[in-house]
Amino acid sequence: MSPVAVAVEDVNGLPVPGATVVLDAASALTGTDGTAAFDLDPAAGRTITVSQPFYVTERAEFRDGGLARGRWNNALLRRQTAGATLRLTVRLGRWAGAPTVLLTEEQLAAMALAGGDPHGALLMKLPSDPSRLAYRQQWNAPLPVELAQPVLLPERPPAHGTTGWRRFNSTPATPPADIAALGRFFFVTCPGDTAAPKDPTYAAAVWSPNLNLTAPPDTLDLIVFFSPHTLGWTPPYPFGVSKGVPGADQAFVMIGTRYLTADYAFAYNLIARRRQAIVVMPLCRKGDWGPFACADGLFRLCREVLHFLHRECRTSTAGLTTVGGIDRVHWLAGASLRAPGAGVWADGFGLPPSPGRIVVSGFSTGIAPVKQVLGGGPLTGFDRGQWGCPDAASRDAFAAAWQEIWDLDGFHPATGGWPNYLNLLNGWYHPGGPRELRLIHSSGRVPPDAGTSDHPLFKRLRAEGVTVDRRVPTTPGIGGARELHGRAWSAVALDDPYIGNDPPVGTPALGDAHHATPKVGFSHCAALSRVGATPGP
What we know:
It is a single chain. By secondary structure, the protein is α/β, with parallel strands linked by helices. The chain has 2 domains: 2-93, Carboxypeptidase-like, regulatory domain (Immunoglobulin-like, Sandwich), CATH 2.60.40.1120; 167-231 and 269-528, no CATH class. It is built from 13 helices and 25 strands. It has helices spanning 66-69, 105-114, 179-182, 251-262, 266-272, 295-311, 367-375, 384-387, 392-401, 417-428, 456-464, 496-499, 513-528; strands spanning 2-9, 20-23, 26-29, 35-40, 47-51, 58-63, 71-72, 77-82, 85-91, 96-97, 100-101, 121-126, 129-135, 146-148, 170-172, 183-189, 203-209, 219-226, 278-283, 354-364, 402-410, 436-442, 468-475, 479-485, 489-494. It has an 11-stranded mixed beta sheet with strand order 10-16-17-19-18-20-21-22-25-24-23, sandwiched between helices. Strand 12 and strand 13 form a beta hairpin. The mean pLDDT is 93.
C-alpha cells in the first residue's frame, strides 16, 4: 500500500473543494486545498471518477500498469511522483458538448407546427450520405468562400454593373474550403445555477480547426464573436423549436450554424486562410449575455472552451486518430470522447493550452457586450469561482491577450451611442502598442468619418500615421466608399448601395447592406490579422 493524492483543480488552476473522488472501490472528498488522500496499491488501480455538482464529471481508466505506470484515456488527468506519493491531478470544467437528438420527419413536422423543446441540438442524416449524421442546418460542403485582401477597396471605381464581391479586392478560395475535413463544429452547454446545477443555462457554438501538432501548444488563439441579441425570442433556450416555422427551426442553435458555417461562413474563411484559431460564439439567452459581457466571464469562457477541446483531444493530432478516438464519420454530429467506450490512450497528454491572442468581435447590437467588456465592469450576479477568474493574475493575462477588436457594423441603440463607444475605444487602443482596431460600417449605422472626425480617438489614429487612404467616389447607382489604414488600425465606411446590391456575386452572398457588412468585414479583418497564424504550418 502506498499514499496516493488526487488534486482537483478548475480551469483557472485553482483548487476545487467538495469534489467526490472514487478510486476503484475507495472514495474521498477533496478538502479546501482541492486534494483527496488515499492509501492503496497504485499498481492495481484501474478507474478514477471525479465529480462535483457544478462541474462536468471526469472519468479515466488505466491499463497496462495501473495508476503508477499505466496509460489512461482522459486528457484532463496528469500524473506525477513526489517521493513515495503518487499524485494525480484532474482538471474539471463546466462546459460539455450539447446533447443531441435525432427525430423522424413526422416528429419534426409535429414539433415545427406546435413548437417545443427537444432538449438537445437536432441532428439530420446527410443528404449525400444517409449513414452519417450532422447538426441540423449546419453547412458542411466545401465552399469557394471569398478571401478579401488587406486593402479592401479597388484602386479604380467598379464598372457599371459590377456587383457583390467584385466591388472589392477579393478572390474565391481555391480549392474551396473543406470545413468537414479540416475541423469540427460543436455546440456546448454549461451547468446551471445553484438551484439546478445540471440544467444548461448558457450555450455557445465553437469552431475547432484541426491542428498539425503532435503535442498541445502553450497557447491557442481565439476569436470571440457576439451576434445581435435575441431579446423577445420566445422558444425555450437554448434548444427550443419555433412554433409555426417549417423545418423545425431551433432559433438559438441556428445562430451558431448561420454565422460560423451556412450564411456568413466565418469558419470557412479561416480554413481557407489556414488559420488555426478557435471561434467561440456565445448564444445570447433572450437578450441576456450573462457572465460573458465582462472581462472576468469572457476570459473564463475562453479557458473553458480550450479545456473542453483539450478533453476532446482537439489541441493536437491525438484526436485525429480513429483508433480509440472519434471516427470521422461522427465528427459532424458533436460526438464526444466522453461517450462510453471512446478514448485516446496515452501516458501523458500535456496541459490544456492557455488563451493566446484574443479577438473580440461584434455585429449590429452584438457590439453592446463588447462595449461592456471595454467598460471594465465587474462580474455581477454570478459566482466568480464558477463563472469568472478570481485571481489578479488572470485579469492581467486577459488584458495582455485581448489584442484585437473587430467591429462589424456595430449598432449602438440604448448603449450611449457613438460618443460613448469611441471614448471606450480611445481608452483601449494605445498608439505604438500591440493592440489592433478594425472598424467596418455601412452608412446606415451612421459611422463618424475617420478621416475628418475631431474625436480624440480618430485624431490619435491619424496622428499615428495613415498608410492607406483609398476612396471610391460616389457614383449613381453604386454609391461610394472610403478605406483608411494605420500601423495597427483600419476604418472602412461603405455606402449602403455600394455593399448591399443585386445580383449577388461571390460566396457568401451579400444581401442587404447591414447583413452584408459582417460577411465582407470578417474576411477583411482576417486578412489583416495575425490571429491563428501560429502554431503549425
